[in-house]
Amino acid sequence: MRSRFLLLFLALQLAAQTPVGVAYQCTPQDVEALGLNCSPEEPCPVFLELSSAEAAGKSLFVAGNLHTRDVTLSSILLTSGDGGITWTEPAERLRSASLEQIEFMDQVTGWISGGMIDPLARDPFLLVTKDGGKSWNQKMLFDDTKYGTVAQFHFNSLNVGELVLDASRGKATRQELYGTMTGGDNWEIKQTSNVPLRIKDARPPNSSGLRLRADSAGGAYHLEKGGGRNWTGLATFKIRLADCR
């Protein structure tokens, strides 16, 4: 039994040090659809950007996007069921989209906020899971095109939640508070403001005991578990993934 725990500990330590292999292949469809100006002489580096991390039961989740210096390529969601040793993608990458905040109500139901970025932020949505993160469905927040990003959201129960949409332009701040009584199927506006809004009962950052730390010098994101000054590495993700040519 002791040797089994030792092997697991060594595997976790190795996983925290060995970068996770996030693959990206630049296709002609991507080049045309996204207007990429890349060539063998002047390739476009592709970068991973991670914005949030969350845990649900034994599963870990990290979310963000893939982008060049000028263009957002797609959203990305990664999950691990073995403490960060191996990772898979439970949701399809959405072209020109980015994922932000992750929140789970329990070990089964969860949401991820996101939106389209091309080039203005628009059409915010939620990814919704009801099977512990094994599968995710995209749910648009509005029927018509809406410019802005989800600054924050929080569900108090499976049905009741609030969401802040940041529709600011330039130096002019405009935020809108929406509420739902249907688990996110429908949203009704509750307040507009020219100063930033905050959801009263929203969970604080790192409340799940996870954090993402960007190491620019090392070219990696580190997923860590702990609190205060005590953090243990779970996984490492390379920031620069590939080149579009």
Main features:
245 residues, four-stranded antiparallel beta sheet, 16 strands, four-stranded mixed beta sheet, globular, mainly beta, 2 helices
Describe the structure.
The protein is 9% helix and 47% strand. It has 245 residues and is mainly beta. Strand 7 and strand 8 form a beta hairpin. The chain is built from two helices and 16 strands. The chain has one domain (2-244). The strands form four sheets. The chain has a four-stranded mixed β-sheet. The N and C termini lie far apart (51 Å). The model is unreliable at 5-10 (pLDDT under 50). It is globular, with a radius of gyration of 19 Å.
Shape: globular
Average of pLDDT: 91
SSE succession: HEHEEEEEEEEEEEEEEE
The radius of gyration is 19 Å
Number of helices: 2
Count of extended strands: 16
Strand content: over 45%
Q: Low-confidence runs (pLDDT<50, min 5 residues)?
A: 5-10
* End-to-end Cα distance: 51 Å
Tally of distinct domains: 1
* Helix percent band: under 10%
Main sheet summary: 4 strands, mixed
Given helix and strand content, the structural type is mainly beta
| Strand line-up of the largest beta sheet | 1-15-14-13
Offer a concise description of the structure:
By secondary structure, the chain is mainly beta. It has helices at residues 2-17, 28-34; strands spanning 19-20, 44-56, 59-67, 72-80, 97-104, 110-117, 121-129, 137-140, 149-155, 161-166, 175-180, 188-193, 210-215, 220-227, 230-238, 240-244.
